[in-house]
Write a structure and sequence with these properties.
The protein has about 350 residues and is α/β, with parallel strands linked by helices. The protein has 2 domains: about 1-85 and about 180-200, Thiolase/Chalcone synthase (Peroxisomal Thiolase, Chain A, domain 1); about 95-175 and about 200-345, Thiolase/Chalcone synthase (Peroxisomal Thiolase, Chain A, domain 1). Helices cover about 35% and strands about 20% of the residues. It contains 14 helices and 10 strands. A 4-stranded mixed beta sheet has the order 2-1-3-6, sandwiched between helices. Strands 7-10-9-8 form a 4-stranded mixed beta sheet, with helices on both faces. It has a two-stranded antiparallel sheet with strand order 4-5. Helix 2 links the parallel strand 1 and strand 2 (about 45). Helix 6 (about 130-145) packs across helix 10 (about 255-265). The longest helix has 16 residues, at about 110-125. The mean pLDDT is about 95.
């Protein structure tokens, strides 16, 4: 409710302006509509509580607006992971195909599987954990400039190297946080957005691709779906990789960022470890990453807060962590169901 009210206030809209609702990690669209007093929405949907769903929610909302099914869509997400005692591992994963193939071998969490994927990357390309340390340290440095971040104390490479293993070779600082929170973003037409309070942020290009198998692991590190998304985005948009002011990369675990950079063509397969340097990924580097702190330091809002950070950067509202000349930005999520967008500041 708080996130919804704050999003309306930010946009300069009234509750009665909203005629579409998409919810994720919330019990039901009906209950949410009841809570916000929306009796006759024109478009509703409910998405699972999976990180890959944040990008899909934005795509669904944009499709609804573009096709005249709704004028203003509120995309609402809630997470009670900390208060509910979620561990994201060790628990039963139900009767999904992935659970049947992975759980008998101890793979009860995406973290364990991602650790095995990174081991494969190490074996194939000689990658070390040092670039993962750079990613974790950079996320924390950005979070230190973000008043909304959960973890704000800077960390060093010594801190990273001494952190306990969760699923070797991944340590505590490679993992997303477990926290409570909520996010809401509002999607409407560019024409209507231009009459509202803030400079609009446009969905300049968006794409979705997948690699659906009986297991979560991908032997190519999701390179095929991510490269398809990259091809789509850079064919649609006039912006190319060198034009991006930042990239908000889904980071349930730090290797996912490395896999994404390779899949999106910022470097060749196997070169991500060398490509990731503090100078390149920092706030004033070639491609600033996860400028709000990402899932390992800001909060684990499963991609939703990464979208919000992208909007704030493009609206140039980020204070000390504001990147230079933010006209275009990237969101990308590497997963079995992958998404990516290029977002643009409307000038």
């Amino acid at each position: 409710m708080i996130a919804f009210r704050e999003a309306l206030k930010d946009a300069g809209l009234k509750r009665t302006d909203v005629d579409g609702v998409i919810v994720s990690r919330l019990p039901h669209y009906g209950r949410m509509c009841e809570m916000i007093g929306l009796r006759h929405p024109r478009f509703v949907n409910v998405l699972p509580g999976e990180g890959r769903q944040s990008g899909i929610a934005l795509q669904y909302a944009a499709l609804a607006v573009a096709n005249g099914m709704a004028d203003v869509v509120a995309c609402i997400y809630g997470n009670n992971g900390r208060s509910a005692g979620a561990k994201y591992g060790g628990e039963s994963r139900g009767i999904s195909t992935q659970a049947m193939f992975e759980a008998p071998y101890g793979m009860t969490s995406p973290g364990a599987v991602t650790s095995m994927m990174f081991r494969r990357h190490q074996y194939r390309y000689g990658t070390t954990t040092e670039p993962l340390g750079h990613l974790a340290i950079s996320n924390r440095a950005n979070a230190a400039l973000n008043p909304n971040a959960v973890m704000q104390r800077p960390i060093t490479m010594d801190d990273y190297n001494s952190a306990r293993y969760i699923a070797e070779p991944l340590c505590l600082l490679d993992y997303c946080l477990i926290n409570d929170g909520g996010v809401c973003f509002i999607v409407t037409s560019a024409e209507r957005a231009r009459d509202l309070k803030h400079t609009p942020v446009l969905i300049h290009a968006t794409s979705q691709a997948s690699d659906i198998t009986p297991v979560y692991v991908a032997d190519d590190f999701w390179h095929e779906p991510m490269s398809q998304i990259a091809d789509d985005l850079f064919a649609i948009s006039e912006a190319q990789r060198e034009d991006l002011a930042f990239a908000q990369l889904y980071d349930n675990f730090t290797p996912t960022m490395l896999f994404t950079l390779e899949g999106m063509g910022f470097c060749e397969p196997g070169e991500g470890g060398d490509w990731i340097t503090p100078e390149r990924i920092g706030l004033h580097g070639e491609l600033p990453l996860n400028t709000g702190g990402g899932h390992t330091s800001e909060s684990y809002m499963q991609g939703w807060a990464l979208h919000v950070e992208a909007v704030r950067q493009l609206r140039q509202e980020c204070g000390e962590r504001q990147v230079d000349d933010a006209q275009y930005g990237l969101y990308a999520c590497a997963a079995p169901l992958a998404t990516g967008h290029i977002l643009k500041r409307d000038n």
